[in-house]
Design brief:
The chain is an alpha+beta fold. 48% of the residues lie in helices and 18% in strands. InterPro entries: PPIase_dom_sf, PPIase_FKBP_dom, Trig_fac, Trigger_fac_C, Trigger_fac_C_sf, Trigger_fact/SurA_dom_sf.
């Protein structure tokens, strides 16, 4: 009888041990049913960086150093930048959004109304005019005109004052230019190689980000929410709302108008989307805390400081304390922990190669 009782006790103990190894973690807010060995789609390898890609970046960088030279001895040509005042009329009446003063326009950029079968484009009709000229042109809005469907196909007159003409001169890529404008390179060859390395790092970062997103998604599929810490939900909701309120201010509008005009949704749907995103973020946060505690992944103070300094550098801050003051120390520490635990989950995940059918 004693042997039988002992066997039952051992079986029960073994069952308990196996249950303890299942990987399930729980607190008041969430239960994580699995976090090791999460199966995720294997991302495609990083795209190969070509010479054309490098050249595009080189030309873009050179264009950033282009010098504007005034043109006073000839009429405007394609490729010039003109500064104009203009007023648009439909049936003799000025219309909303059709006027501006001191607007810079690169001729040939196709930024303004283009040509139709019956009318030349806005930019083409400026060509041939000189500084100080005041003239009228006639154009036709495209059909359809997605920015304002009511004006699709409408013919409009524009009164234009040509204030100035200038020409952008792009510097040539030389060793001298590199030495003046690059901190890490001295020659054209070194500069191109540095750009190639940056592009390769960027391509790989995109692959890594895709894998990280997949791992977090897979984790959340194994997270059961018991309840939400409402204080944290309110805190993150306020942060997101404040962000969009500030963004609306940059456009000179109130939040409600920004949501409807620029995000093209209703305030109700906008608030619902924010609430959903915040609650998902909070649930993920709680799950990562549980995993960090179980696996002893909580960053040390030194790790926190090193990571925050890296974040500050990536964000373009020279002063780490200023960066902490803007973002908030608690938020930054939460980000450091999230990144460390996510790196652990990525190391532990199982990447499943995708077949053509599964794709």
């Amino acid at each position: 009888m004693k042997k039988k009782i002992l066997a039952v006790m051992l079986a029960a103990a073994l069952a308990g041990a196996l249950a303890g190894c299942s990987g399930e973690l729980s607190n008041d807010y969430v239960t994580v049913t699995q976090y090791k060995g999460l199966e995720v789609p294997q991302p495609a390898p990083a795209e190969e960086v070509t010479d054309d890609m490098v050249e595009q970046v080189v030309q873009s960088n050179l264009a950033a150093y282009a010098q504007s030279e005034p043109v006073t001895d000839r009429a405007a040509e394609m490729g010039d930048t003109v500064n104009i005042d203009y007023t648009g009329y439909i049936d003799g009446e000025a219309f909303d959004g059709g006027s501006a003063e001191g607007a810079d326009l690169e001729l040939g950029s196709n930024s303004f109304i283009g040509a139709t079968d019956d009318y030349e484009g806005f930019e083409e009709q400026i060509v041939g005019h000189e500084t100080g000229d005041e003239f009228d042109i006639k154009v036709q809005f495209p059909d359809p005109y997605t920015r304002n469907p009511d004006m699709s196909g409408t013919v409009a007159d524009f009164h234009i004052v040509l204030n100035s003409i200038s020409l952008q001169t792009t510097p040539e890529l030389t060793d001298e230019w590199v030495q003046e404008n690059s901190e890490d390179s001295d020659t054209v060859e070194e500069y191109r190689e540095a750009i190639r390395s940056q592009l390769e790092e960027s391509m790989q970062a995109s692959v890594d980000a895709e894998l990280t997103d997949s791992v977090q998604t897979a984790l959340m599929e194994n997270v059961e929410v018991n309840e939400y810490p409402e204080d944290r939900v309110e805190e993150l909701t306020k942060q997101m709302t404040d962000y969009y309120t500030q963004l609306a201010g940059l456009y000179g509008v109130e939040l409600g108008e920004f949501v409807e005009t620029y995000l093209q949704t209703t305030e109700e749907d906008f608030n619902t989307q924010i609430d959903t995103q915040v609650r998902q973020s909070v649930a993920l946060e709680e799950a990562l805390k549980l995993i960090a505690s179980k696996q002893h992944l909580e960053p040390s103070e030194e790790e926190y400081q090193e990571a925050i300094a890296e974040y500050a550098e990536e964000a373009g801050f020279d002063d780490v304390e200023e960066y902490i003051g803007q973002v908030g120390e608690d938020e930054l520490k939460a980000a450091v922990l999230r990144d460390k635990v996510t790196d652990y989950l990525v190391d532990e995940c199982i990447q499943v190669e995708q077949s053509d059918e599964s794709e």
